[in-house]
Fold this protein.
Amino acid sequence: MAAVLNAKKISVFDRPVVKKTPDAKVLDANETLVLERLHTLTEYTDELEAAEAGLEAKIEELIPPKAREAIKAMREEFAPMLEGAEANIEELKATIKEIAVGIGHTVPNGRWQAVWAKPRQSWNNDKLEAYAAGGHPEVLDFREVGLPTVSIRPKSETVAKKKKR
């Protein structure tokens, strides 16, 4: 946990040397930088999970065995009710979405809102490019290409491992 709490701020200007991987693929400096940062992210999240597990273990030590058994029994007793409530909520959300999509605007109400978004439009890029190549290059003037985005998420085996806990 100390590395997470005491980590030096990482600058985007820290550029590593280009490296070769075991399969002899040459990585550019940015890819190497991302790989190194992902490795650091793994270390930080592992340390955080270990600290959380340590905290839970310390809390468990404070709870007498009889109280732990009672807590376990309560969790088992409430599990079907909680699962049923979660299923009802998901079913209701799906129903709300089905109804709200036809309204054409966001419907707010206290804690929740049904947020309406206009439909996304897309084109078949292969067919559009073929049409342009077939004597209509002007059609490409109407195409706009946005910037790529990146999301940070765990790999599927990491997610599966967490679900087993």
About this structure: Residues 2-119 form one domain.
